[in-house]
Design brief:
Length: about 400
């Protein structure tokens, strides 16, 4: 397994904007084209249209006309008509509340659109690191096949010279077959991970080969700075705040609607063929009852529920920030230990090989050392990919990667 040391522990930097990550422009294009993002943007447009409608108000003028042909005994026949136009009028204060409801709806929808983009970015990052991690395991397993093949060739030469038993050849061949089976499985998992990434993001251009999994690096400023950004930059929290403010405005609007909006209008008429003509002013107003009071109570309860939901979202964001940082710290620590295990296993394997060359150690012990070193390298690449996935999640949740707020965008 000595060949694995340098390719895995001293990595060349992939040709990417950031080590191991795809180009930002390609990611942005993939996010823009995702159906979940497009749907959220369409809902944002709908919220803007609804806000405009609320600002204008639901009341419209109503024109009513009528024509009659009347016959009066001993007098004759008369043509008569009437026309009236009426329009409800919002009472003072209601229009302002309607505008506030619409504005908060726009804020909510805009933040939900950003949060949808955020969630899609998390899905892309998770699928990306799943692919790179699986491809890294496949490389380790492929190298193991080469190493076991070299062991088998060496033992076969020694057996031909009657310096090794036929049993050792069988042991080496069995080890090679096991390594080949593991390599086939790893290659299949890498292909599946790539297929899933392509299926979820069909327009996302992938390189022919997965980049090497780079070394996890703590971002400049440390993890705590990213943790604090999550608390202050959450679109989910902003959306919940907007929804709570909208519910409060809707509750106040329902309370004011206990006094219904009046309608005023003008009426003109002509009767008896024009012998009687007139005009007048109309006024009508619904008299509120238990129905309007019940609606106001309902809106008040919904406002209370929205405030409780807002408190729950705050708790969730706090939990997300703490969990993201803890996960990144734990994953990085696990990778450090896995790297130490690789170094120890490589040193042990070197000693086993020297002992075999001196005739002091049998092939079985060497094959066991090869397998343990192989497993250590596989665990290290898995831990490395997991550490990078956790760091990437922390950066996305803090809006410092791929979904930067405009004021935070990097040059």
């Amino acid at each position: 397994m000595r060949k694995l040391v340098w390719p895995l522990l001293v990595l060349a930097t992939p040709v990417c904007a950031e080590p191991g990550l795809p180009e930002r422009a390609a990611v942005v294009a993939a996010l823009d084209a995702h159906p979940a993002v497009l749907a959220a943007q369409a809902r944002s447009e709908a919220a803007r249209a609804e806000a405009e409608a609320l600002g204008r108000g639901p009341h419209e003028a109503l024109l009513t006309t009528g024509y009659n042909h009347r016959t009066v005994r001993d007098e004759g026949r008369y043509s008569e008509f009437e026309a009236q136009i009426t329009r409800p009028i919002r009472l003072p204060g209601k229009a302002g509340l309607d505008r506030r409801i619409g504005a908060q709806g726009v804020t909510y929808a805009a933040n939900m659109a950003e949060d949808a983009r955020h969630q899609v970015a998390l899905n892309l990052a998770s699928a990306w690191w799943a692919w790179l991690g699986a491809a890294g395991e496949a490389r380790v397993d492929a190298q193991a096949v080469e190493n076991y093949a070299a062991v088998l060739a060496s033992v076969a030469r020694r057996a031909a010279l009657r310096d090794a038993a036929a049993l050792e050849v069988d042991q080496a061949r069995a080890a090679l077959s096991g390594a080949q089976a593991a390599a086939e499985g790893a290659a299949g998992r890498a292909a599946i991970a790539r297929a899933r990434l392509v299926a979820q993001f069909p327009g996302f251009a992938l390189p022919a080969q997965a980049p090497e999994v780079p070394l996890p690096e703590i971002p400049a400023g440390g993890l705590m700075a990213l943790h604090d950004r999550i608390l202050g930059r959450s679109h989910e929290l902003r959306a919940a705040e907007a929804l709570a403010a909208q519910a409060e405005a809707q509750a106040e609007r329902a309370r004011r609607d206990k006094v219904a909006d009046p309608s005023v209008g003008l009426r003109v008429f002509s009767e008896k063929g024009g012998m009687e003509r007139g005009a007048g002013v109309l006024f009508s107003m619904p008299l509120g009852g238990g129905y309007r009071s019940a609606l106001a109570d309902k809106a008040g309860a919904q406002a209370s529920a929205a405030q409780a939901d807002l408190a729950a979202v705050r708790l969730t964001i706090d939990e997300t920030a703490d969990a993201d940082m803890a996960e990144a710290q734990a994953a990085r620590a696990a990778w450090d230990k896995a790297r130490e295990a690789v170094a120890a296993q490589v040193a042990a394997l070197a000693k086993l090989r020297r002992g075999q060359a001196l005739g002091e150690i049998g092939l079985a012990e060497v094959l066991l050392g090869e397998r343990q070193a192989h497993e250590a390298f596989r665990e290290e690449v898995v831990a490395r990919a997991e550490a990078l996935r956790a760091l990437t999640r922390l950066r996305i949740d803090s809006h410092t990667l791929w979904i930067d707020d405009e004021e935070d965008a990097k040059p």
